[in-house]
Design goal:
The complex is a heterodimer of chains A (about 450) and B (about 500). With about 450 residues, chain A is of the alpha/beta class. Chain A has two domains: about 120 residues, Leucine Aminopeptidase, subunit E, domain 1; about 325 residues, Zn peptidases (Aminopeptidase). Helices cover about 35% and strands about 20% of the residues of chain A. In chain A, the strands form four sheets. Chain A has an eight-stranded mixed sheet with strand order 6-7-9-8-12-16-13-14, with helices on both faces. Chain A has a five-stranded mixed sheet with strand order 2-3-1-4-5, sandwiched between helices. In chain A, strands 10-11-15 form a three-stranded mixed sheet. In chain A, about 55% of the residues are buried. In chain B, the strands form four sheets. Chain B has an eight-stranded mixed sheet with strand order 7-8-10-9-13-17-14-15, sandwiched between helices. Chain B is elongated and about 80 Å long. Chain B has two domains: about 150 residues, Leucine Aminopeptidase, subunit E, domain 1 (3-Layer(aba) Sandwich), CATH 3.40.220.10; about 325 residues, 3-Layer(aba) Sandwich (Aminopeptidase). Chain B starts with a strand and ends with a helix. Chain B contains 15 helices and 19 strands. By secondary structure, chain B is α/β, with parallel strands linked by helices. Chains A and B meet through helix 10, helix 12 and helix 13 of A and helix 11 and helix 14 of B.
Chain lengths: ~450, ~500
């Protein structure tokens, strides 16, 4: 096979001769993710350290480091024959995750830009890789969506990108604005009301082997200005990623279809643009949600929970799900709480919460359990409506308030909520991560759905 | 505060009487006595109010007859779900409803003495009032209640209450310290109040600025250097375990910033008055030591508090300064308002070095981020030790001082890497409470340790059944319970 070669190694004996010499000369310590390069044979060769007795985390990190070192190559060979097939697959997974990048919007090619577009994995048994590959494709699908700017990804163009999933056997159903009005999606319509691009609810059904599906409910705000409660200009461009929850749910369904899974699941994606305009909803408005419950709007920038509330009650009533998991870039509060390393996990059902946390641990998409306290719910009491959707003022535990709000719309179905604000994209690339969209949630959901 | 006394269950002839009623039970004991003496007025009143004896439900019937000024029915919920905490809350509700008469009584005749004692505890916790600076309050605005009599098995209940009284006294001490205005309670004054624990048998050592300089508490001194009020570190030792063999003590460490302006990185003016309670961690440690000594706890414990005032001035520490902590590690101070961790850093290292404790628990009103994370219902719990963390959470549930575990990890630790020193004192907005805990963890030297970020729970804008609004003394009961449950032979 041609192309640059990379070899994961725990010790010198794992390396071919030129790399062994380079490792010795370069005082290579075989630390996880450490790389050393040899050009002596006329071919780029990179040894990447695995550390001692590498687990999944180290293998992925080493794969990522290998890809990072060779991003300038068109094609790279991962020679992992010295590892078990399972280890080889995890190593390749790290490489594939690191090699992702948003393409397609440059009019002129940048000669300095990464080129890596093909990875050849050399291993003794491809089966473990085939287990991982569908979720990687799903993650890549989600990341491409998250990376798109909001003028390229309006709700209708989001729908347009989802339609081709039908070719994989996924039933794609779209509830357009008139249908939403007829059905009483008061939250989704209010949030999407000011935009020239009307909102939509998309259902992606994967029937699997039949039975009650797991509903994956995603927040898909294609751009979030904050509405009348407008956001500060600084950093507002990042709000193009405010649909990362919906993208992750779509990616997880794609993965199920790719692996022809027996698991039944349905993604419910609430797509809207939270714009500002003459038809914008206002702070103080009272909305009638799909559930019939009325909601007092305190801050139009807390829009995600309004669209999710409608989507959750719709899913609970119409889809008879066995469980519901929602994903949303929901609050700044969760970023203050957990930073960029873990998503917030709010689960009304302890078993569901534990399963999600375990799945996240297994794939390296970490979550942390967060509370919904009595007071968080009591804080949402409204003087004029059934409840209000957030609290005014700074220094609020808004992530907990949002979760307490959403719980009211789960209608008794086992439910969990992942607040993925802060983990949906990364500011800077490093050895382990590409810059930009992470696809957080796709691999977690895939693992959760396929391992229970 | 009313005096709490205990007496045999006899119907009082005047004043107020609170009845503790479990759900779905007929009136019995003293309650039945009231019903009879009032010619059924009690039962009629409860029926009119649709009283169901739900937990926390309270109905007051004024002048029901039999000479009583009022009868207060307090719901307990189902009897099989009764816990000490439920009874404390019932005691708190009862006390709150009895404040209007000079004499009050609570009928605890249906309860075992050890449970009845918790009713008295709840009542005494609720009775707290910080009124020493009110000079013009009218008599009719003051609570009248002078004596609260708990009716039941008097001797046994009184005996069971004795250790709980010590806990209540510890809570009161903490609330007083936290409520005091910052011009009164500066580091020197707070140290003097710690010294009073000598009367309870606590060994108290006060380190002043000279000793601290000599020891090399550079991080703490950097925080203190902007204030005219010089810092103190107080070391309180309670040796109650007895026996010749001295065991590793339990260590409790408190942040005591008697006022926090933020320093040169000054805080916004709105709400700055709250920063008088930035010593609530230290306040809780002092109250805890008083509680342990007051009830002669069979444990060796050491409490260490770092008392400083964080002021902007010509001598104040600047953003960009590098200080050398007592551990020898250097810290780049990038925000002078992240001062609590600097104080705690020196205390933690000193504590583990000097006392080799079994574990260290620190309490601090450390970050605004923990309020945005969890709100006011839970304090943040960070720990490097699973057993300690689990025991702390259990103790929190048992005492109504709830904790929520928060994560630590290498990725967060990276956020406090400094370009020129061993670490910097802030790690950015993201995960702000976690990076503060990571900072502290660098000073525990691998010892079992837990950090309680009590910024959201030390002060309450709304009262609760056993906690009037204001200083909560969060941590005193929780840690006392931890000690009592796991560390007393």
């Amino acid at each position: 096979m041609t192309g640059a070669l990379t070899v994961p190694a725990e010790r010198a004996a794992d390396l071919p001769a030129p790399l062994r010499a380079a490792a010795s000369a370069g005082r290579f310590r075989f630390a996880t993710g450490e790389t050393v390069e040899s050009l002596a044979s006329g071919r780029r060769m990179v040894a990447v350290g695995l550390g001692h007795a590498p687990g999944p985390k180290s293998l992925r990190a080493a794969g990522a480091a290998a890809a990072a070192a060779l991003l300038g190559e068109d094609r790279v060979v991962l020679d992992a024959r010295a590892r078990t097939p399972n280890e080889a697959a995890l190593f390749a997974e790290g490489a594939v995750l690191r090699a992702w990048r948003p393409d397609g919007l440059r009019a002129r090619p940048d000669p300095e830009a990464p080129r890596l577009s093909a990875i050849d994995l050399v291993t003794t048994d491809a089966a473990p890789w085939q287990v991982l590959a569908p979720a990687l494709e799903g993650a890549s699908f989600a990341r491409d969506l998250v990376a798109l700017p909001a003028n390229h990804l309006t709700p209708s163009r989001f729908v347009h990108r989802l339609r081709p999933l039908a070719r994989l056997g996924i039933a794609v159903e779209v509830l357009a604005a008139d249908r939403l009005a007829a059905e009483g999606f008061g939250g989704l319509l209010a949030v999407g009301g000011a935009s020239a691009h009307p909102p939509a609810l998309v259902l992606l059904r994967w029937a699997g082997g039949g039975g009650a599906p797991v509903a994956l409910v995603g927040k898909g705000i294609t751009f979030d200005t904050g509405g009348v409660s407008i956001k500060p200009a600084e950093g507002m461009w990042e709000m193009r990623a405010d649909m990362a929850g919906a993208a992750a749910c779509a990616g997880a369904i794609l993965a199920l279809a790719r692996r022809r899974s027996k698991v039944a699941a349905v993604a419910v994606l609430a797509l809207a643009e939270n714009a500002i305009g003459a038809r914008a909803y206002r702070p103080g408005d009272v909305l009638r949600s799909f559930s019939g419950r009325t909601v007092e709007v305190v801050d139009t920038d807390a829009e995600g929970r309004l669209v999710l509330a409608d989507a959750l009650s719709y899913a609970a009533r119409r889809l008879r799900p066995a469980a519901m998991v929602d994903l949303a870039t929901l609050t700044g509060s969760i970023v203050l709480a957990l930073g960029h390393e873990r998503a917030g996990l709010f689960a009304a059902d302890p078993g569901l919460g534990a399963a999600l946390a375990g799945a996240g641990e297994a794939v390296g998409e970490l979550v942390w359990p967060m509370p919904i306290g009595e007071r968080h719910r009591a804080d949402l009491d409204s003087a004029i409506a059934d409840l209000r959707h957030c609290l005014p003022g700074r220094m609020q535990p808004d992530a907990c308030h949002a979760a307490a709000f959403l719980r009211e719309f789960a209608e008794g179905v086992p439910w969990a909520h992942l607040d993925i604000a802060g983990v949906e994209s990364r500011d800077e690339a490093d050895a382990a991560h590409a810059a930009g969209a992470t696809g957080f949630g796709v691999r977690l959901l895939d693992r959760f759905l396929t391992h229970g | 505060m009313p005096e709490i006394v205990f007496a045999k269950p006899a119907l009082p002839k005047s004043g107020g009487l609170a009845l503790l009623l479990a759900a779905d039970e007929p009136l019995a004991g003293l309650a039945a006595g009231v019903e009879e003496a009032t010619g059924g007025a009690l039962g009629r009143g409860l029926a009119a109010a649709r009283f169901k004896a739900k937990k926390g439900e309270t109905v007051t019937i004024l002048a029901p007859g039999a000479g009583l000024a009022r009868v207060v029915a307090v719901g307990l919920g189902k009897r099989d779900a009764l816990t000490p905490l439920v009874l404390e809350e019932a005691g708190g509700h009862a006390l709150g409803a009895l404040l209007g008469d000079e004499k009050g009584a609570i009928a605890a005749d249906g309860l075992a003495p050890n449970l009845a004692a918790h009713v008295a505890l709840g009542a005494s916790l609720r009775a707290y009032r910080f009124d020493r600076y009110r000079t013009t309050e009218k008599d009719e605005d003051k609570p009248r209640l002078a004596t609260l009599c708990v009716l039941g098995e008097a001797v046994k209940t009184r005996n069971a209450f004795a250790p709980l009284k010590a806990i209540a006294d510890g809570v009161t001490l903490t609330r007083d310290l936290v409520s005091e205005p910052p011009n009164v309670l500066n580091p020197a004054e707070m140290a003097e109040r710690c010294r009073k624990l000598i009367d309870l048998g606590v060994k108290v050592e006060i380190l002043g600025p000279r000793e601290l300089r000599k020891l090399g508490f550079g991080a703490l001194l950097g925080v203190a250097q902007g204030s005219a009020n010089e810092p103190r570190v107080v070391v309180m030792q309670w040796q109650g375990a007895g026996g010749a063999k001295s065991r590793a003590p339990l260590a409790f460490i408190g942040k005591g910033v008697t006022f926090d302006t933020g320093g040169i990185s000054i805080k916004p003016a709105a709400g700055m008055e709250d920063m008088k309670w930035d010593m609530a961690g230290a306040g809780a440690v002092v109250g805890l030591m008083a509680a342990l000594a007051g009830r002669r706890a069979k444990v060796d414990a050491v409490g260490i508090v770092g008392l400083v005032e964080n002021m902007p001035s010509g001598t104040a520490q600047r953003p960009g300064d590098v200080v050398k902590s007592y551990s020898g590690q250097t810290v780049e101070v990038l925000n002078t308002d992240a001062e609590g961790r600097l104080v705690l850093a020196d205390l933690l290292w000193y504590c583990q070095e000097k006392f080799n404790p079994a574990f260290m628990v620190d309490l601090a009103t450390l970050t605004g981020a923990i309020i945005v994370s969890l709100g006011h219902e839970h304090a943040g719990l960070f720990s490097n030790n699973e057993e300690l963390a689990a025991r702390l959470r259990e103790a929190g549930e048992a005492t109504g001082e709830s904790l929520w575990r928060m994560p630590l990890g290498e990725a967060y630790d990276k956020q406090i890497k400094s370009d020129i020193a061993d670490m910097k004192n802030i790690g950015g907005r993201a995960g702000g409470a976690i990076t503060a805990a990571q900072f502290l963890q660098r000073f525990v030297n691998g010892k079992p340790w837990a950090h309680l970020d009590i910024a959201g729970t030390a002060w309450a804008d709304k009262g609760k059944p056993t906690t009037p609004k204001g200083a909560t003394a969060f941590g005193v009961r929780l840690l006392d319970h931890l000690v009592a449950t796991h560390h007393e032979s």
